From TrEMBL:
Family (UniProt): Belongs to the eukaryotic/archaeal RNase P protein component 3 family.
Transmembrane segments: none
InterPro entries assigned to the protein according to its UniProt record, in alphabetical order: Pol/histidinol_Pase-like (IPR016195), RNase_P_p30 (IPR002738)
GO cellular component entries: nucleolar ribonuclease P complex
Organism this protein belongs to: Streblomastix strix
Pfam families xrefs: RNase_P_p30 (PF01876)
Name the UniProt record assigns to this protein: Uncharacterized protein
GO biological process: tRNA processing
Predominant localisation class: nucleus
Superkingdom: Eukaryota
Compartments reported by the entry: Nucleus
UniProt keyword annotation of Transferase present: no
Amino acid sequence: MYIDACLNSPEDSKQLSTMILRAIQLGYRSLVLNHVVNDNFQPLNNCKTASPKLDVVRSILNSEQIQTILRQQSLNPSNIKIYKRITIVAQKEATLLKLKPDNQNMKQFDIVAVAPQNEQVFKTAVAHSEVEVIQMPSCEDWGYRARVPNVRGCIKRGIKFELCYGEAFQGIFGDMDLIHPQEGILQPICGI
């Protein structure tokens, strides 16, 4: 289960608590806290990123707060694994060059994801050893194509693609708008 929630205030902890409890009831045992940042590694503080092309989720609550929520609900915090993820909404290739294994800021995260905003950043992301997830927007013209050889190389290296599909539920042509821009990714995966 993947739940998008914009958590910006202490009042949102009740919403988060409800989501966690529902996930546990459904049998899920892991939670990923997604910290979304821009090219300068500054948090994006509202529910929409600075770029109108991508809608992403962020959580300002840290794992200690999650553990407290679980204890308040009489749940054993050891029953759920909490991972920290950083999603970099990158418009500049130089941003990805800062991602190095010895970078202290990056060591606090379990998962490194990139949301490339242009073709040059996409090409750099698919070749970068620190990137584990590439988040692709849906239902819009990216202004570039995901090249099949690049995608195949990513798959061989274990990079995952996160295809955002929420917008496909809007409008009568939503499903077509979802498939068309992502053909370069779907082709090597599904053989389309």
